TrEMBL record:
Protein name, per record: NAD(P)H-quinone oxidoreductase
Family annotation (InterPro entries): ADH-like_C (IPR013149), ADH-like_N (IPR013154), ER (IPR020843), GroES-like_sf (IPR011032), NAD(P)-bd_dom_sf (IPR036291), Quinone_OxRdtase_PIG3 (IPR014189)
Top-level taxonomy: Bacteria, Pseudomonadati, Pseudomonadota, Alphaproteobacteria, Rhodobacterales
UniProt cross-references to NCBIfam families, sorted A to Z: quinone_pig3
GO molecular function terms noted in the UniProt entry: NADPH binding; oxidoreductase activity, acting on NAD(P)H
CDD domains membership: p53_inducible_oxidoreductase
Record keywords: NADP, Oxidoreductase
Keyword presence, NADP: yes
Amino acid sequence: MTAIEISEPGGPEVLRPVEVTVPVPGHGEILIRVAYAGVNRPDALQRAGLYAPPPTASPLPGLEASGWVAAVGPGVTKWQEGDRVTALLPGGGYAEYAVTPEDHALPVPEGIGLKEAACLPETCYTVWSNVMLRGGLRAGERFLVHGGASGIGTTAIQMARALGARVFATAGSPEKCAACEALGAEKAVNYHEEDFVKVMKAEGGAHVILDMVGGDYIQRNVKALADEGRLVQIAFLKGSKAELNFAEVMMRRLTITGSTLRPQSDLAKARYARHLAKHVWPMVERGTLRPVIDSEFALVDAAKAHHRIESSGHIGKIVLKVA
């Protein structure tokens, strides 16, 4: 099969098409004939040598894909050959075939195609597990998501709004801010022109903040939280170290937490999948949550897709067309 390998750590140019053996599904796994693969920032970090895959995962990049079940491994009970699925992958999505545990796949929601479906797993797993489960966001609370025009951000805005939260976002241009507000954000803050801390304080503070920026945003996020607010960290585009006065955390009863999805156990990811099937897939089928797709590239043009995601000019998701 054709796949995209990382020839060596480096920039997008190190991604190159190769011919490799089709993987064989093991016990409890399914083989997916990939139609589309989602492109995510962790893929770019892996390409740069900053985010190693787990020892048992494929070294090929790609954490989500949609397509058809091509084969099932021993013990599989949920799927049959030919089923349309979208799935979280341990790796290997930039290829014509990929394997994943059967419990990490979900049916393609009614009303959308395989292209949109490929954009759901990574963002929905991440947002639900961090904002709803870890952050405990409830209806009526104020929610702030940084990077509101990203794949994570556009998903978080719609999901939080569908659950009845008041949604705020940050973004880096008027176009991106307008996109956030069109998706349901009450206000999108252009961080080049406004201070999100002042904006959130004027509203009474955020009950939950989802942040992938880190660096000096960590201290500012603490200032922007309401008493008993929760800061959930999922990435560090500006660095993972910050100086913080924990007396404020104690006095205001704040919670600082976070997670990374890929290293979590198969059982944890299966639990998230059950949550998505029950709570999120109905949103998709009702049309209250839809993937925002920025651009599409051919599989062999994966390097161009990485240039696009690293330019930070995109709004929503980037996908690779495989089949």
